[in-house]
Amino acid sequence: EDDKPHNPMVNAGAIVVTSLIKQGVNNAEKFDYVMQFLNKMAGNEYVGFSNATFQSERESGDRNFAIGYYLKEKKCFPEGTDMVGILDFYFQLCSIEVTCESASVMAATLANGGFCPITGERVLSPEAVRNTLSLMHSCGMYDFSGQFAFHVGLPAKSGVAGGILLVVPNVMGMMCWSPPLDKMGNSVKGIHFCHDLVSLCNFHNYDNLRHFAKKLDPRREGGDQRLGPFITQVH
């Protein structure tokens, strides 16, 4: 609609969102701003940067440059935007590193309504959390998003590095990492883990909390103890 991308979970939308961050300042200040924000999301757990990945993204970014020029032609960027500079910043953001531990805290911050569970600091507004989780639920798993929403029923975001960030709203956040990908660009073992999780626990958005007696409910008293063997297997 209006020749503008509406999905920030894929390249075109992500590039436009990148152009909206801290308009009017240089890329160094923008990058520092994003890193500070991610550190707050992660409760000051590890958030780093891979220069090797950045150089690779920049040198093999023909498709993203093509997308950038198309977006520029359709006037999707704010007026006066330096498209090449925005792509450089985008490649920097694509090169940010996290661990499973730090990313799981980010997921838990989303699950906790925008409050970081480690620091107790509010990082996101309730509206931002709701909108982010809605997008993750509807389009966070590339072309597999519809099937994932049907079978798993939880907001998630995958990446081509093999990670899946999974949010169980009001309960917990998790990060799975296993590099082998399927044809849609999602972690094969990560998908299997998410299926196993909702087959064991009543976390699917449309599981009935009263009548799914065969599934575990960690929300109930003693539920975490019954999850012991599963938690051991995860670790």
TrEMBL record:
**Keyword check for Hydrolase:** yes
Which BP terms in the Gene Ontology apply to this protein? glutamine metabolic process
What EC number(s) would the UniProt record show? 3.5.1.2
* Transmembrane parts of this sequence: none
Catalyzes what?
A: L-glutamine + H2O = L-glutamate + NH4(+)
Question: Which keywords does this chain's UniProt record carry?
Answer: Hydrolase
InterPro entries according to UniProt: Beta-lactam/transpept-like, Glutaminase
The domain of life for this entry's organism is: Eukaryota
Q: Name one Pfam family in it.
A: Glutaminase
Asked whether the keyword Hydrolase is assigned, the reply is yes
Kind of enzyme, top EC level? hydrolase
Entry similarity comment:
Belongs to the glutaminase family.
What's the protein here called? glutaminase
What is the organism field in this record?
Mus musculus (Mouse)
